[in-house]
Amino acid sequence: MSLHAQDDPALRTAQEERLRAVWKAPQGIFLRWTDCNNNRVGAWYTLTAFGFMLFAGVLALIMRTQLAVPENDLVSANSFNQLFTLHGSMMMFLFAVPMFEAVSIILLPQLLGARDLPFPRLSAFGYWSFLLGGVFVGGSIFFNAAPDGGWFMYPPLTTRTDLSGLGADIWMLGLSFIEVSSVAAAVELIVGVLKCRPPGMRLNLMPLYAWYILVVAVMILFAFPPLIAGDVLFEMERLLNWPFFDAARGGDPLLWQHLFWIFGHPEVYIVFLPSIALFAMMIPTFAQRHLLGYPWIVLAAVGTAFLSFGLWVHHMFATGLPKISLAFFSAASEAVAIPTGIQIFAFIATLWAGKVKWSTPLLYASGSLAIFVIGGLTGVMVAIAPFDWQAHDTYFIVAHLHYVLIGGTLLPLFGGLYYYWPLITGKKLSDRMGRTAFWMLFVGANLTFFPMHFSGLYGMPRRVFTYPSELGIDYLNLASTMGAYLFALGTLVVCIDLARSPWRPKAVRNPWNAGTLEWLAHPDDEDWGIRSVPLIESRYPIWDQKDFVAKVDEGRFFLPDAEEGRRETIVTTVLDARPLYVVRLGTPSWVPMLTAIALGSVFILTTYHLYWWSLAGAIATLGFILYWLWTGTAEIPEKPSKPIGHGIELPLYVSGSAAPGWWAMFITMMADATAFSGLVFGYYFFWTVHPEFPPSGPGMDGPGTFWPMVALGVAAVSWIATVAARESNRRGGVGAARGLLALGILASLAGIWAGLQGPLTTGLDPELHSYPAIVWVLVIWTTAHAGVGAIMQAYTLARIIAGRMTPTHDADLRNITVYQHFMALTAIVTYATIGLFPGVA
Amino acid sequence: MKRGLHGMVAKLKVTLWSLIVPPTVWAAHFLFSYLWAAIHCAKVGGFARFPILYTVGTVVALVLILAAGIVAHLQSRVPGDTPPHEEGTDSDRIRFLAFSTVLLAALSFVGVIFTAAPVLFLTDCR
After folding, report:
1. Where do the structural domains in chain A lie, given as residue ranges?
2. Which residues of A touch B43 (CB under 8 A)?
3. Is B50 contained in some domain?
4. In this predicted complex, what is the ipTM?
């Protein structure tokens, strides 16, 4: 399509009608929930996370009411335990993390000028998983069955079934399920940022929000899996009596603390950075100038992400680890203040250099920075081990973490709400109500949490349901409670403001006069995302590029049409965003929801020990996934390429590292490998804590060297067969590829058998001691992966036989080869560890 | 015409992967520090006043970060190119990645020194 052709209004109208038809949302009471367009899924996601936030907030209010006066008896100790556990868990797992994912699912395609993210159905699957898991975990409190061991669930309190009830299982399995949806969102967001940018949006022109999201999504990949590994060990102990955390049988509760906080500390930055990213979008708009220090902000985001993985032990300063270890983590904890400070200074400098418009969103931004800085400063204090020993487990820490999270997550999100509401609904929120709410929130937060510093230093421990009057902290607690109610009233004002929105008139387009791509959105929004995918030449194209908005609207850029009646967007290169190919996107379907329900049933039924039903759920999940893949992915297009305008012709099929699917596999396997390394860490952790390792005695001598080495050899055969199948298929040798894949399947199945032989033949008893238990877990992990590998090989073989994969359309085979690379690595590490390390140790 | 060191490093184009080299070295050094201390304290019960292994590991990490920083610094300088360096051109994209790498190298360098400093002061496993 030439530039000239778009001058014809009739053509433009015809294009718009085609786009509208293709992107039409499913209608009807039931069918509408099959939608997978990012604007709808993102909105559901945001509303659900907001709802969970309000719920968890109410739990906090009940706690503050209980603590308003000494010796209060509003709730029992048991209920109070459930309240604080659920409050923390929900705010972290059901609000802070999902909220960032939700907001990103809405904003990212707009920011990147894409019609949608690369895997819309995956977003829908993530949402349904989140909803299901969230209701399961949150709803448990109505049955007096909520988890009550604190949001960190320390064993042995929580692993001993005589000390903790169903709540621990609900926490562990319900939240594991939600972690799956978080990893799914991370895959979606990383591939979105790296591969779905508009042509010309090189890395140095990318909106900073996208930089932050990229960094945070990568952090999720490395932070969440250790917790998943911990969850696996935890549930093995609760359900099967395998003693990973039971000191009497060679376990160690500290292992859980390590795995939990390797997740838990990066988690703080996972929820903080996306909120700061909102500032990076708002501040240039209200300063009406480019943000100062773009590379410095990227440094801050990347630097914080890395350093945040070196902080986890500062939650464990009081556990008696050697001081030298504490000192390393103390040093890293202090170092993280450097990048955090840099980004705050960059924001202040930008405001200073620009002409500031004191809007409501900016009020929230500056207020939250003030609160965050206070939380940051107390963070620097508690990062010093000797001070932490004084403050540990007191209300000082409660004050610190709430200053960080309210200043670093909640208030920025409210600011973002006021800023982006016109983008999503086409209507502005009330400035008056917004400002009123802000001052209530700001004063309320300080009134609640500032006194807690003192009540903590006076000796009020965390997680107590009441306190004696003699401690002299009555008035401090009363102040905190009053502040909490003021804060809640502020939140209520925000909710009323939101509720009144439908009756307000539409705002003008781009009401804040912003310069970034997302503000192309029209108040009368269309479902197609963007009328034509623009060519980007600036960080603020709306400000800097001539007639930019008109050109986009008139379809004068790329992909202005949907001739074949398909949902499409452009995939570009990672560094320079050169157009690579046109990807066809998933359309509304029941499959994501059904897959989420089936997978959810596995977790939920396991909680109630209904293992056979749970197995049925697992089989159903596998069936839905295979159906989803078979019908919805790696489709061979009806023609090899299509024009996207301006004389550019792009292919409709690519495979290997150019394709989003390949990246999704690679990223998923990075997460998988990280979870695995958590288990391997467990093995070597036990080596450091046991004077004699491996321990000897009946049921503990194993698994020997022979079978692990056989299993390793068989895994190597599977790997080589898959790589060889890929190569011979590429050269046109389809018959050889089929044979090699069949060999691969056999080798994978043999790998399962050989892997299990080691611990089976030597009679390792996992209930006896942590050593046989950890060996068993490693073997089960590896053989389960071999099983999944066999399913993938069989699937690919079936695709070849069905004619859905050919020598030139080989995405499936290339993707499963990536899996096999990781599988080979897993086998090497597992079998070398369990087979050879006992000899070395 | 590019010569010598500058010419050599100009061929090593910065990418997203090279951007994360300095912080990855920091992370590797940090992990090394943690494992070194944990294993020494659990298995040996102490460590030397001037631990050779640890010192060598730290110096290697610092040298690697320094090298990454210098390479990136040389790449970030394109003769005759005027600021503000925020155009959609090859040279500005390389300059941006290279400069960000320099900044990360500086942070990582400080980070490694922060991490290693306690070994100068603490002498046992208590």
Report:
1. 661-840
2. 688
3. yes
4. 0.92
d(CA A555, CA A6): 7
Cα A427 from Cα A522, distance rounded (Å)? 11
Say if B91 is an interface residue toward chain A (CB within 8 Å). no
Which positions in chain A touch B33 (Cβ < 8 Å)? 328
> What distance in Å separates residue B8's CA from the closest CA in chain A?
21
- On the question of a cis peptide bond just before residue A592, with omega within 30 degrees of 0, the verdict is no
Does any CB of chain B come closer than 8 Å to the CB of residue A335?
Answer: yes
Q: How far apart are CA A487 and CA A364, in angstroms?
A: 14
pTM for the model: 0.94
Pairing of strands A648-651, A641-645: antiparallel
Q: What is the DSSP letter of A157?
A: T
How far is it, in rounded angstroms, from Cα B92 to Cα A694?
A: 56
Residues of A in contact with B92 (CB under 8 A): 202, 204
Residues of B in contact with A539 (CB under 8 A): 86
What are the two backbone dihedrals, phi and then psi, of residue A461, each rounded to the nearest 5 degrees? -75, 155
Contact across the interface for A325 and B126, Cβ inside 8 Å: no
A525/A529 Cα distance (integer angstroms)? 8
Number of domains in chain B: 1
A226 three-state secondary structure: helix
Smallest CA–CA distance, residue A775 to chain B, in Å, is 20
Q: What 3-state DSSP class applies to A583?
A: strand
- Which amino acid belongs to residue B79? P
B residues 51..90 contacting A (CB < 8 A) = 85-88, 90
Partners of A584 in the beta sheet?
A568
Fold of A661-840: Four Helix Bundle (Hemerythrin (Met), subunit A) (1.20.120)
Return the amino acid letter for A621: T
B118 touches chain A (CB under 8 A): yes
- Kindly list the averaged pLDDT for each block of 10 residues, start to end, along chain A of length 841: 73 92 91 92 95 97 96 94 96 94 93 93 95 95 92 91 88 90 92 94 93 95 94 94 94 94 93 92 93 92 93 92 92 91 92 92 94 94 94 96 95 95 92 96 97 95 94 95 97 97 92 93 85 93 93 92 92 92 93 96 94 96 96 91 92 92 95 96 93 87 92 97 96 94 97 96 94 96 97 96 93 96 97 92 75
3-class DSSP state of A643: strand
CB contact under 8 A, B126 and A298: no
Contacts of A484 (CB under 8 A, 6+ apart): A60, A61, A64, A444, A448
CA dist list (Å): A815 to A441, A658, A810: 49, 11, 9
> Which three-class secondary structure state does DSSP give residue A460?
coil
Residue A574 to residue B43, Cβ atoms within 8 A:
no
Residue B60: give the domain boundaries: 4-121
Two structure tokens written together for A822: 């990781």
CA distance A320 to A489: 43
Inter-chain CB proximity B111 and A575 less than 8 Å: no
Looking at the domain assignment, is residue B112 inside a domain?
yes
Task: Report yes or no: A528 and A37 within 8 Å, Cβ to Cβ.
Answer: no
Q: Establish if A307 touches chain B: CB-CB under 8 angstroms.
A: yes
